[in-house]
Amino acid sequence: MRVTVVQMNSGADKAENIAQARQLIDAAVTADNPHIVSLPEVWSSMGGDRGNKFANAEDLPPLGSNEPGGAAYEFLRATAREKRIHVHGGSIGERGGEKLFNTTVVFNPQGAEIARYRKIHLFDIVTPDGQGFRESATFGSGDAIVTYEADGVKVGCAICYDVRFPELFLALRRTGAELIFLPSAFTLQTGKDHWETLIRARAIETQCWMAAPAMWGRHKEGSGEARFTYGHSLVADPWGHVVAKVSDGTGWATARIDQAVTARVRRDMPVLEHRKLV
User: Fold this and answer.
1) Residue 85, Cβ neighbours under 10 Å: how many?
2) Which pLDDT tens digit goes with each residue over 136-148?
3) Would residue 41 show up in a list of annotated catalytic residues for this protein?
4) N or C end of the chain: smaller count of CB under 10 Å?
5) Could you confirm whether 83 is annotated as catalytic?
């Protein structure tokens, strides 16, 4: 299986973000012929104020219903069908009453939605430069562990800040995951010190492939304040090696997921069998 992680620089204009995603996916599919493509976290609406986030969010149809959705949802579905690939849709804003959910939707090559994951851990922190983030002011928290199958590979779902909570990744491994997607919009301040270290740690602990498409660059908040995301989208193997990576700017990287590597790592170091406390 060939996996592509797409790196974007989204803003508050949803139509422009969809156009950017389309251009990058078209180029990646032409160049690398992947089996599955993933976009970053909140790729359809990055920055802007709370009202803009709600305006850009979508009411999702019932999972498995094949009913129509919003513009971002239908773009992902159409891309999967037209390219005949799996599309792991990063995450988009899902309307859920007074708050939104930060939600991943996944489509198979026939354009059917096969998985939906709501981000569990919400980013309520102050970064080293003093900027405050309070994701819970806009978003509610999910509560379900989600996996799906793509081309014979069991795939687990996580989003951004989830990476700091290894118990989620252990739970995904215990469900049989071999590959875990981590669409993200990591801040520049935290990303430069922790991004690659955390992803490699989760890969080593779970003996899973980690695929992390990320947001990059400058984004303007509704207040006019500029915020910056780190980028450096990457794929790491079950031994913790980074096998593909995007540099600064928009773009993509593609890696081959080799199940024989996964099997060998797990056979030679059976950490799940040795685990005592959790």
Assistant:
1) 24
2) 999 999 999 999 9
3) yes
4) C
5) no
